[in-house]
Each structure stands twice: as C-alpha cells, then as structure tokens.
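Hi R.,

Here are the chain sequences for the assembly we discussed:
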Amino acid sequence: MGENEKAPKKKLTKEEAIALAKARKAAKAAEAAKKEAEEPKVDLDSLPLVKAIKKEHAEAIEDIKFANNELTITVKKDYLLPLCRWLKSDPETAFDYLSEVIGVHYPKNEEKPLQVVYHLFSTQKNHRLRLKVNLAEDEEVESVYPVWRSANWYEREAYDMVGIKFANHPDLRRILLPEDWEGHPLRKEYPLQGPEGYREKWLRRHCRNTNAL
Amino acid sequence: MLLEIGIALLKIIVVFALALLTVAYLTYIERKVIGHMQVRMGPMRVGPHGLLQPIADGLKLFMKEDIVPYEAYRFTFYFAPILTLVTALILFAVIPFDKHFAITRLNIGVMYILSIASVGVLGILLAGWASGSKYPILGGLRSAAQMLSYEIFLGFSIIGALMISGSLDLVKIVESQHVWNIVYQPVAFVIYIIAALGEINRVPFDLPEAETELVAGFHTEYSGMKFAYFFLAEYANMIIVCSMATILFLGGWRGPVLPGFVWFLIKLFALIYFFIWVRATFPRYRYDQFMKIGWKIMLPIVLANIVVTGVVMMMVQGG
Amino acid sequence: MDEIRGLVVTEEGLVEQDLMRDTLTKEMWVNMGPQHPSTHGVLRVVLALEGERIVDTEIYIGYLHRGFEKFAESKTYPQFLPITDRLDYISAHAMNYGYVLAVEKLMGIEVPLRAKYIRTLMAELTRISSHLLWLATHALDIGAMTVFLYCFREREMILDLFEMVCGARLTTSYFRIGGVANDLPDGFIEKCREFCNIFPQKAKDYDDLILKNRIWLARTINVANISGEEGLNLGLSGPSIRGSGVKWDIRVSEPYGVYDKVEWEMAVEDGCDVYARYLVRLKEMRESCKICQQCLDFLEKDDSGEFRAKVPKVIKPPEGEAYACVEAPKGELGFYIVSDGSTKPYRLKIRAPSFANLMSLPKMVEGALVADVIAAIGSIDVVLGEVDR
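And here is the predicted structure of the full complex:
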C-alpha cells in the first residue's frame, strides 16, 4: 500500500518502481544475511539440555534447532514416549509440565505433512523445550497421556483440529467440534467458511424446523 | 348470629387483604433494603422510588404464559403451588395482631400453626416431583429433608416458652409475658431464629432453591402465576415465623404508649429486617453441613434447654 | 448402592441377607450447563449422582468455539490483535500482551522501556479487574451476594481507567506490536494513583464479609482438593496451582515486561483447596496494586514519550516459529506462531489457561457433593471464551 501511494508522487514508471522495490528487497536480504553472520552462532552441544539428551537418547534425535532463544528437537516417532518418560523423571531435565500439544499441517512436505509439536516446561529447573514429531498422513504417534495426564485434552484437540491420530489415547474423540463434524478445520485445504453446502446439510440433520433454510 | 358472621367475614377480609399487601410489599422492602446494603438503589423506575414495583411485578406474572412441561404430572403440577399458598395463608387465621384482633382465637393456636405449616412442605415436595425434571426433584428432596428436620427443632425451641407461659393459646402466651420470654429463653430464641431460617428456606439455608446449584430448585419449571404462588407463600411464611417469634419471645403487642397493633408491627418488621440482613450477608451452607448443624448441634442444645427450663421452674415453684 | 446386611423373616426363619436386594437404585445423570447460573458461560458438566454425591464427571466444551486459530491464518498480524481480546474477554490486556510478545519475539523487536512500563501497568490493572470479577462471581456462587456488588464497585473504577486510555472498557485492543497504541492521556496517572491508594482499603470490605466467615470457611476449606503434583500433571497453572503450594509464576520464572525491575511477592498457599486458591488471588490483587504503584512512579518521572518502537509498516516476520507466554490472570497464556515469511501467520496456536485448568475439575470433585462442583468451578476461574476459542 505505502509504496503504491508513494510511487505516483515521485512520478516513477511502473518498471522503475518494480526495480526500486527489488533493489530494496535485495538490500534487506543482504542486511539480514550480514546480521545473521554477525550473530554469535550458538554451539548446540554446549547447551546442558542437549548434552543430557544426547547422552541418554542420542538415537531418538532427528534434528536440533535453536532459534529465538528456544530449543527445538525433532524426534523420531517411535522414540517419543520413552524420551518423554525420561525427560519427566530425570532430575536434570525434570519436565513436569506439558504446556501444549499442537498439530500443524504442512501440505508441502508430501512425505510427512503432519507435525506434532510438544511444549514442555519444568517448574523446578525453569526451562522450556519443544519437541517435534513429523508424521505421514496415515501414521499414528504414541500418546503421551501416560506421562502427562494433561495430554488428554491437548491431543483430543490436535485430533479434532488437524486430524492427528494418537495411539493408545484413552478417549480420542472430538473436543471442540460436535461429534458428527466432518473434516479437520485446521488443515490447509479446509476452506475458511466451511465446505460447500455444509450449513444446509448441518441444519437438515439437526434442526426440526427446516424453514430456516 | 348474622352479625357475628358478618364481623368474622370482615375480619377475614381485612386480615387477608393486609396480609397479601404486606407480602407483596415485603418483596419491595427486601429489594430496597438489600439494594442499599449493596451500594445500589434497588427498584427506582416504577412509581416514585419504585413504589409501584410489586404491582407491576404482579401484573407481569399474571399475564405470563402458563407453561406446563411435557413430562410434568399435570394435576399435581397445578395443585402444588395452590397447596403451598393456601397453607401459608390460613396460618394468618390465628395470629393475634392485637389483644382483640385475630380472626379466630384457638386454645391450641401453637399446635395449629405447627401442624398446618408442616403441610406446606408437601406442596414443595409435590412441586419437585410433579415437574418431571431433575433439578426440581433434587430441590424437592432437599426441602423434604430440610423442612422435616428443622420443624423438629422449631417445635422443641418453643417448648421452653410454652412451659413458662403455661398455655398453647397465643393470646394467653402474650398476656403471661410481663417480662418478655426472650429474657428467660435467650438460647431458645436463637435456635428458633436459626430453625425458622431453615424452615422457610432463607439464606443461609436456602438449599431447596439454591439458584447457583439447582438453578431454581423445586420451582425451576414454574412460571407465571404458579410461580407467583410459591413466591407469595414464601414471603407469607416469613411473616408467620416472625409473628410467632414476636408472640412467643418478644411479648407480642405489649409495649408502652403506642397501641398494641403498632408494637406488634414494629417487632415484626424488626425481625423481618434481620432476616433480610442475614440474606445480604451470609453465603450458603452445603446440604450435609446444614443437616449436621441441625442434628448434631441444635438438637442437643434445645433438649438441654428444655431440661434446664424444667429444673429451674421446679426449683422456683417448689422453693 | 452399598450392600446393607440385616436379618429378614422368611419362611425358613431368620435369614441374614442384603436388605437392598430388591431395591432398584441407579445413579442419576444431571446436565449442569450449558445453561446453568454458575457454570460461567456455556460449560457443560455432566454429573452422575448417587443422591447428591458425585460418582462420575464428564466435561463437554466447544459451545463457544469460534475458530480463532483458523481465522488467524487468513488475517494479517495486526488484524488478529483485536481478536485476541475475545479470548478471555474480561482480561483483554493480558491476552493482547501474550500475542504481541510472540510476534515481537518472532521479529526481534525491542520495545522501549516506557512502553514496557505502560504494558505492565495495564496487565496488572487487568489482573485486579479479572480477580475482582472472579471473587464476585465465586462468592455469588457460594451464596454471598453482597461481595458481588462490592467487587463490581471497584471493577468499575478500573474499567473507567481503561476507557480513559483507549476508549474501550472491555475489549480494549490497546497494545500494538512494538508498544502500545498511544501514550497515557493527561490526568491518567493521578486517577490511577487514586485508585491504587484506595483499593487496599476497599479490599478490606471483602475480607470483612467472607474471609473469616464460618459458612465461607465450611464451604471452601478441604473442598476440591488437588495436590501440586497432580495439578501439574493435569495441566493446572496460574493462581490455581499456586494454591497447591507450587512456586511457579511466569512473571518470576521467565520475566517479561518490567517484572524483574519491580518489587513484589509471589502469592503461594499450601492448602490445596478452594480456600487456598481464594487466598492466593486475594494476595495477588494486593501485590498487583503494589506493582501498579511502582509503574506509576516510573511513568510520572519518565518524559521520553517513547510508547512504541519503530516497526516496519507491513508486519512481515521472518520464517520461523516462536512461543511466548505470559502470566494471564487465569494461568499460563501462550501463543505459538509459525511464520512462513508472509504477512499472515502460517499457524497460530493459542495455549489458553482455562482450557488446561478445566481438565483438573473431574479430579477435584471426585466423590464430592453437587454444591462442591460449583465451588470448584469457581475456584479455578474458567472463562469459556478462552476454553473454546
């Protein structure tokens, strides 16, 4: 918007404006790259959490990232539950609080479009950790309900919204949407206002008085 | 003969008209008093200072649609509020507002009041059952347990006063009080007030209609005039128990200078004010705690009170 | 129903048997909500009752689901800010705060000190107002009617302050990415100071009515117990978990704003019951008042006028993800944002405290009475706008 308004004032031609914008973008990118280069690279292995996990559960780790002051560890699907058990019980990590379980849909990753994100917090050690598990469309991930009871509703919500299936969850039902809802709204292909003709279908199924249609 | 009937009818009309008017305006008084206790004004819109509010309320309730739930037992559903209101109103028959002003003078006035009042419970129980809904039945069951057990304490707590007065006649009880009974029976008076709060379902014992737990308890499904009947009955009962307290413990119409009728009303409204004050102040007891207070604390105290009263009376008279 | 054994006269003489043998008893299922005076909105709790004792509890939520997370994906970052108000609509500033923190973390924006103080002041005023509303409704649920109106008297003063600052009383949307919408208006500091000075005296009124009231104690002590460990396991956070003796407050553990620059005390109680949670919130209100005083001290002296950092006109965070959490009046409020480098969030997840807190309700009311459910719901302070999102 801003640039479009400015453009006629300076009486630039369209091509010139585009060139200008491109130049700006390039400058910005260069600046960002410079900034990144300047920033001290965090040595991942020096972090105590990473050290501890690598020592005990090196086989579970797929990828480690540290950005925005947050540690993210991508975990292989099958190792999740043992890793979580250990993270909670080990006195050094002591993750006694599960903040949330999030389902994210990445349709661009054709192999493993679904991602489950776990946010852990330790009230004793006062640190946070993010775990990630990538899933294929038909894969199930082990529920962490045996470790943290709070996973119950979080996982139900992830199932409800994104359609991630959790194995051995005690009660995997929809939680926010009605039981007979079709589809998982937080998937990228789900339209914002619901699928075509959904309202009529819904009313016909649930309202005695269909004059409202 | 005709004259006597005429006078009796006149008395009935006067008492009942006054009673219904007082009951209606009691709602107004309650709203005003509680309003001012809670840093607000209470009703202000209908008439000056909202004085016509009870009439507006009555009209509104009268014009409302009469809803009967599909699952309700129709006859009982209609009958319950009538039963409750009628039993509450016929209690006024024996209340002596002044030495010579009562509709009728029974020599067993106290017994009459206790027995008729216990029929009122039936109305609430029936209402809860006949609504065919879950919250009312819980409310009805609560009220059955509550009112039946609190009637016992209510009855026991007035025995001391009856022993001193030596009569069941309400007029005689008042006449015998050269010194108010409350002086001789302070414990019994306190127990009477607590039991009365329980008996007429007022805060902190308003469990049958605890609105934050049971929605509205036994009258959840009632609307319109049927609801108004319960409402009126509740306030009528409040006047009755306060009148009884006045007669039994506070010397009824006795008092200097002012006419007896006025004294009676002053004492009555002081007590009613107290009841309203309690409502504005206290939270609500839980059901089991409430029963515990009744059976484990109040019952032993009233029984001890009767024994002590008897022993003291023996000693005074015997000595 | 339990077995009751007793002697019964039969044809074979006296026989000992179960007296309840021929009595048909079954539990009654009662819907508490979605329309109920004290489920604070549209919460539906289904209770299985045996008499008045609870044998089973099931919670159904979602009656207020408005799809905020889906909605966020089609809105730009600044456009989504007003929607966060509608999460916990009685503490809108705190909701804004969580969201702007997450976006700022993602973009690496440093907020000027004055803005931080203003934000902290607003967040604490919000906490007082939210706790006042909680105390009002909680007391009303338990039957104490007058406390309700006393609390609203003070809440009204706070809402007037909000109105002075941003023109809105409830859904304020005062925060902006990088700071706040505008500087404090003239006369605000004096008026706010006046409120902070009289609030402790007014708060004494609530104590007079219920703090030592025998009925209040009977209704709250040893009711809806939950230990700290169980609470953490079930996702309980905020004042509710601090009532179970867990020393965890995000303002202390991961300080944001100026919470590390002001002096205050974390409120913790060991009672694990409704009464402990009540005491925690009472103390929190007074501590919040202290924080407000200190913020006002700074804002009075400060004349920098920097209420917003320089942020790009088009908010376009770099690719990446960030989680930022604040101590909202109800507990840990977190926003997890995944950015794909465009002007709209790729995925936005709201970690609502009430949603997590509600999970411990069935545990709290195990074997309790109907009246205790009301006390328990009140004591964990749920707001359904936040639960259902």
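Chain A has two domains: 44-175, 177-213. Residues 44-175 of chain A form a domain with the Beta Polymerase; domain 2 fold (CATH 3.30.460.80).

Let me know if anything looks off.

Best,
T.
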